[in-house]
């Protein structure tokens, strides 16, 4: 908007627009007034224009058709109302159905009361848009003004709107503006608080449960890893960090009976244990020593009894040793040599 124009009156926020007498109606304007409308980039895409500080979206103009451009999907009519400038009206053709032609579908449309030709006077309702730095009206409804009385009635409405409304800036009571502002803040504040709370909670969850690597991939953290050291399983073997190496507490060992017995030096307080597998010695064991059997001793091999050798009759006969008989002799029997 022009800064010099903005100093003359106040532009109200959008939450006040519903109180404007020009927003929710078709404003009867001259074509020159449409070219005088101002545009605020903050309302881009809303088809919203301003006359002074009045927000205007829907317009209504009347003029003589001085040119027609026909296309496959639309017709463009050039209007002149005698205000010194002209404007183009874009009328989108309805889609043909049930084998109709484009002309038949256009003639049966409810937003156009008849075919348009050069020299006709039209009453056009629509919205203002810009195409290639040129303003045009996208028609919502087109009606023919078939007599002078209808044209005069239209110009009277245009003059009345200009004299009673658009000749003075739009002014609101400051108390009404404060009330609307407070109502808008109460409507927006819970939403902002809820969104900020969600963002904080989401951020806390991400910092606690996941971490991002250099490529942006989200990988889980190891439970109990206070320094949030990322372990992917591809690291080289080496000394691990205390936080990563810390594991669950060790469980007590379960004895299965298959473990090898550890050799321990016998304590002097314990008595000797006799298992029956010791080598025989000259030391005799007294009967006072009890024999303790724990079940963990290694089983020794007892000597197997000798089996009798069967005789086959082919064995070599051993020569019997000569039997020497000792005969006692007396002194008289000794031979003298």
TrEMBL record:
Chain intervals with Basic residues compositional bias: 190-201
KW Ion transport (keyword) present: no
InterPro entries on file: NA-bd_OB-fold, RFA2-like, Stn1_N
Stretches assigned to the CST complex subunit Stn1 N-terminal domain: 46-192
GO MF, any single term: DNA binding
Compartments, record wording: Chromosome, Telomere; Nucleus
Pfam families: Stn1
Gene3D superfamilies referenced in this protein's UniProt entry, alphabetically: Nucleic acid-binding proteins (2.40.50.140)
Start-end of Basic and acidic residues biased regions: 202-217
Keyword terms, alphabetized: Chromosome, DNA-binding, Nucleus, Telomere
Main subcellular localisation: nucleus
One of the record's GO cellular component terms: chromosome, telomeric region
Chain segments carrying region Disordered: 181-224, 296-337
PANTHER family to which the protein is assigned, alphabetical: CST COMPLEX SUBUNIT STN1, REPLICATION PROTEIN A-RELATED
Protein name per the record: CST complex subunit STN1
Organism: Chaetomium thermophilum (strain DSM 1495 / CBS 144.50 / IMI 039719)
């Amino acid at each position: 908007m022009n800064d010099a124009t903005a100093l003359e009156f106040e532009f109200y926020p959008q939450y006040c627009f519903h109180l404007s007498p020009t927003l929710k109606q078709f404003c009867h304007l001259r074509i020159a007034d449409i070219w005088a409308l101002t545009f605020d980039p903050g309302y881009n895409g809303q088809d919203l224009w301003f006359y002074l500080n009045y927000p205007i979206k829907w317009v209504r103009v009347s003029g003589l058709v001085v040119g027609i451009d026909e296309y496959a999907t639309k017709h463009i009519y050039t209007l002149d109302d005698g205000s010194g400038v002209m404007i183009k009206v874009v009328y989108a053709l309805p889609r043909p159905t049930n084998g109709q032609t484009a002309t038949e579908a256009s003639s049966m449309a409810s937003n156009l009361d008849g075919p348009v030709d050069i020299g006709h006077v039209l009453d056009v309702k629509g919205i203002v848009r810009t195409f290639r730095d040129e303003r045009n009206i996208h028609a919502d409804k087109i009606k023919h003004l078939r007599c002078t009385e209808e044209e005069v009635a239209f110009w009277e409405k245009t003059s009345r709107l200009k004299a009673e409304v658009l000749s003075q800036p739009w002014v609101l009571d400051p108390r009404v503006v404060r009330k609307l502002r407070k109502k808008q803040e109460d409507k927006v504040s819970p939403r902002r608080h809820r969104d900020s709370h969600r963002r904080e909670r989401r951020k806390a969850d991400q910092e606690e449960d996941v971490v991002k690597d250099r490529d942006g991939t989200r990988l889980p953290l190891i439970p109990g890893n206070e320094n949030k050291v990322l372990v992917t399983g591809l690291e080289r073997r080496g000394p691990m960090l205390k936080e990563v190496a810390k594991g669950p507490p060790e469980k007590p060992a379960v004895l299965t009976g298959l473990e090898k017995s550890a050799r321990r030096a016998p304590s002097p307080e314990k008595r000797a244990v006799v298992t029956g597998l010791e080598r025989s010695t000259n030391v005799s064991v007294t009967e006072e020593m009890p024999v303790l059997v724990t079940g963990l001793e290694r089983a020794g091999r007892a000597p197997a009894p000798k089996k009798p050798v069967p005789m086959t009759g082919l064995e070599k006969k051993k020569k019997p040793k000569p039997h020497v008989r000792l005969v006692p002799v007396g002194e008289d029997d000794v031979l003298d040599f």
